[in-house]
Every structure is written in C-alpha cells, then in structure tokens.
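Escalated from tier 1: pyridoxal-5'-phosphate holo job.
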Amino acid sequence: MAESWVNYAERIGSDLHLELSGPGSRRAALIGALRDAVRSGRLAPGTRLPPYRSLAADLGVARNTVADAYAELVAEGWLTARQGSGTRVAERTGALQPAVRGTEPVHRPRARSARHDLRQGTPDVSGFPRSAWLASYRRALNRAPNEVFGPGDPAGRPELRAALAAYLARARGVRTEPNRIVICSGFAHALRLLFGVLLGPLAVEAYGLPFHRELLAAEGVRTVPLPLDEHGARVDRLARERAVLLTPAHQFPTGGPLHAERRAAVVDWARARGAVVLEDDYDGEFRYDRKPVGALQSLDPERVILIGSVSKSLSPAVRLGWMVLPERYVGDVLAAKGEREAWASVLDQLALADLIVSGSYDRHVRRMRQRYRSRRDRLVAALAERAPHIEVSGVAAGLHAVLRLPPGSERSAVEAAVRQGVALDGLAEFRHPDTDMPAHDGLVVGYATPSEHAYGAALEALCGALAPGGPSRV
Ligand SMILES: Cc1ncc(COP(=O)(O)O)c(C=O)c1O
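Tier 2 regenerated the structure:
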C-alpha cells in the first residue's frame, strides 16, 4: 500500500490524496482510487489532474502506469484529455448527477434545475465592480501598515468604520460615529451576535425571510409575528416584547415602506418599554421613483440598531456587514464577537473602506440602480401587456417585485412558472407560521437576479407562464 500527498500546484495549486491498496496491479489500484475520488465528488468536475511525471514520482510507480490509468479512465468517460489543457475530471459523470439533484426539494425549484432564475435574494452578480474592487484592494494593501496582517480588532478596521459612518450619514441619514459601528459578516451574523444581548421574545413582520426566522428558532429565540397592512407592520400590536425586527425602508418581501406615523410610533414604543428596534436596511440604496426613505435609526440612535451589509449592493459572497449600535450595546456586542476578529476579513474591510472613500461604491450603486430600474420597468410593461389581470406591487424600491394573484392561485402559478423553466417563490414561503393575518397570494420576482443578457428570456418565460391562455409569444 502506498499513500501520498501530491502537490501539483501548477495552475490549480491543490493537493491530491490517493491511497493505492488491494492485491492487484498498481495500475488497477490507481484506476480504482481515481474512480472512487471522482465518484464520491472529492475530485470535482473540471479538476485538472497532476502531470504523469509528478504523480508517478509521488506514488512511487512508473510513469507509464499513470499514463495507462489516465487513458483507461478517459476511455470510460471519467476523465477527459485535451492537448494543452492536460487531463481533467469530466464535466458530467453519470455517477454524480443524481446525488446532486436528489437534494432538491420538489416544491422549491433551485437555480441549478431552472433555466431562468427569478428567485429574490441576489443582485446581478455579473455587475460586480471587479476593476474598482481590484484597484481598491491594491491601494489598501499598498497603504496598509504591518499591524493589519496581525489579529484583527473585533470592532472592525477604523478605516472602514469611519468610511461607513460618513457614508451612512450621507446616503441613509444615519446619525452615528465610528465607535458605535461594529463590523460583522452580514445581517445573519449580526442577528447571531445580538441573540445573547437582547434577551426575550422578538417581534417580527408576519412576512419575512424564513432563513432569519429559522436562525432565531434554532437559538431558542421565540418570534412573535406582527400583521402587515398597506402601511407596513402593525406596530400598534407590539406588547411585552423586548425587541422588534423590521424592514422599514422596503418591507421584505411585500415591498412598501413603513408609514411615517408607524415609524414614530415604534420608536415611542421602544422608549416607553426600554425596548429596541432592529432595522434591517438590506436594500435601502435601491429606490427608484419615490423620495428616499431615510433610516429609521435617525429618529432615535439610542433605541434603534441599524444593520446593513453589502450583500445586495455588491455581492453576498463578500460577507461584510455592519451594526450601528446604541452606545449601551457596544460593549456586549464586542464581547459576543470575541477577542479577535474571526469573521470579517480585515483585508476585505480595508478594500471596502477604499471603495467607499474613493467614490467607487457610490458609482457602482448608481449604475446598478439604473440597471434595476430599467428591469423593473420592463417587468411592469411586459406584465401590463401580457398578463394585465396581475397587479404588480412593491416596485418603487428594491431588487424584487410582488405579483398579486387571485386567492387560491399561488401554487398553480408557481407550478406554471416551473413548467416554463422559471424558478421563483410564492408569498407563502415567507409567511410566519404563527400569524393569523389573512394570507395573500402572490409571486416574489427577483428581477435583479439574472445577468443582463439572461433577463429578457427570463421575463419572456415568466410572461408565458402567467399570460391568460398559457404560454404564447406576443
Ligand atoms: C430581508 C433580508 N435581510 C438581510 C439580507 C442580507 O443578509 P446577509 O447580509 O446575511 O447576506 C437579505 C439578503 O440579502 C435579505 O433578503
């Protein structure tokens, strides 16, 4: 038995662990080991295998043994060999496909199985500002003092906290200073950090992101649903809770802003009860034809915790967010984070600070705002023409729209969309299980999700699914 770690850093820079065992020839053992690695998914489709010579040297076998094993696996369809690009794991090996598909729930179509992804939650990731991010990263690294590469401060880099304090004041009307801002890896991380600080049940909107509810439930936090009406959450129903989580700029997912009177009322409630409001400002930058709705936090920075992230403005892959805290919570939140920064890359923090200070972040947001506005307009126009019975709501802001449907028709509309290759969610997915407010039928359309070139086809397929009389082109 021979065991080896093969370093084949050229181009792919990763290690390949192979165990050659069994009584047969070395060639058979190598073929078996490689086949197992591909079948189990340990060697992903497209992975480049080490050159014959280096694998042979590392395993202590003849070069021809490796060449023969590769040739056999190419013939069987496990590997592909192309001049100039070496030997790679085949893109589609029959063994892997059923396992991946088998994990997909039937009633919640995921992007991999749908031709058109209109699920909410993701910006157009093809618009990520690669050059600006690279330029910011380079500048940030060039300027960074050596201490940057040591353990990070859990509060976050001062450069980013200062940049955010100025940006949020300018763009969102937030009243704060850098030492009230704690950097985190996004909204979900902020919720986790706040669990231990805000004890007791948490009021939430009756429609919201199930992921956040599940996260809270897993930590034993009871959520109490507040009904919604045309002015947003019914904050008059708040009672003995210690905190409430709201999406005031753009209710998620139904789409309207929280009415001015309710904004004032919820802050009054928090003052009277010694409670706190968590403001999820997830897409506050993206508003189109209405006056910007500033952050609720500005009404009372000692009663509102504003939480934001770059997940909608830049990319959910960056994993950077921020909490703007009342002074009394800063110490507890920092204690919850631990002694060192263990979540948010310090280098990414510096790059984001540079992106903001250099003006590139604003330029990017403005460019994406135009792109999303034009998509929103196309969606509204196409539905007015092809499916005029459907009311489109929640479109003055954000990255998604809600298509209101007649009662009882949501499920069949989702299924019609799936038949057209469109993945999207019905409003029922977002409903709190304990709410007693009447259910609304509707589809949540994430019009920002597809890349620019894919949007037209996605829209066409959606209209095909919703047009009276079924799919036909106009
Ligand atoms: C309602 C809502 N809140 C917050 C977020 C941001 O979450 P995170 O910062 O954890 O990516 C999202 C998704 O982007 C969201 O849909």
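The chain has a mean pLDDT of 88.
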